[in-house]
Amino acid sequence: SPMRRFCPAVALALLVVGPLACSEPRTSADSGNAGTLRSGRDRGPAARVQRSTRTRSGRGDPIHRLDSLFAVADSLRIEGRSRQAAPLFRTLRDSLAAAGDTVGQWRGELWWADAMMRLGRRDSAALAFRRALSLAGGDADRQGWVHHELSIFFDRAGQFDSAMTEALRAQRLAQGAGDRPLEANTFNALGRINSLQGRYREALDANRR
Length: 209
Fold this sequence. Notes:
This protein is mainly α.
């Protein structure tokens, strides 16, 4: 079966971070950390992927172990430890690609891109974001999360017009998909972008939402 190609690096990573896998990821107030896990109540794509994974796997199989490793990687990402999270997301992305799990691969690719962006590896991040957008397919919610991350990418590069375009695109997709956490993140992004461009009234309006 495809899961027989389960990457040995995943098993090694689980041995290294195993104790963390038993603890729940912490809540983050960082608007840039889209899709964070909020004590099992999060409605972002990360939580949805985890719930769908649990329904098709037992607790001892490789898919569940990947699910647990995602929780560890997400915890590191939320804590701002991108350097530690990056190799886990890369391993998850590659293992899920080998397993034919497009949704899981999309999630791994998106957060691998986020880690590359935060580590200053812009070329790698840009390429990974393009792959994540392709993996999102026709799913408006997944597309929205990629565009939200791209708004952060362009914001960090000082390309505010592109950042605004991506944030507005993410907002429309979030509203169409009914994804309130994503929509809230886009308002935060728009507030920051407007503020950096001196449009303080628009920034205040966005932040009040």
